[in-house]
Amino acid sequence: MAGLVFGLLAFIFLGVSGIISDGGGDVVLLFLQFLSLVVAGYVAGRLSDTETIHGSLAGLLSAFVSGLIAITSSQVSITGVVTLTLVAAVLGASGGALARWQRETVSN
Prior knowledge:
Blueprint: H1 2-17, H2 26-46, H3 51-73, H4 78-107
Helix pairs in contact: 1-2, 2-3, 2-4, 3-4
């Protein structure tokens, strides 16, 4: 959830402040969304015993919220939502795997 909050606050700040314009900021916003999914998986992995599963679930929750926002605000294709869901699950699981790796490294 922390990754989702981070991503949404970054989107709002960058959109309102005008740092990211309508024409050229798509790559930056996509990077921020991917980073927020990994951070969500990492935080969920740090707080649980099954890091990868909880990281993936955190990514799916983030994708669910982002998908709801996208569906209510504009026309979105089903393939886009499915792709976002798959990418979110993979990135969340990678954040959980990163948390597991860090936990194993620190404990040894």
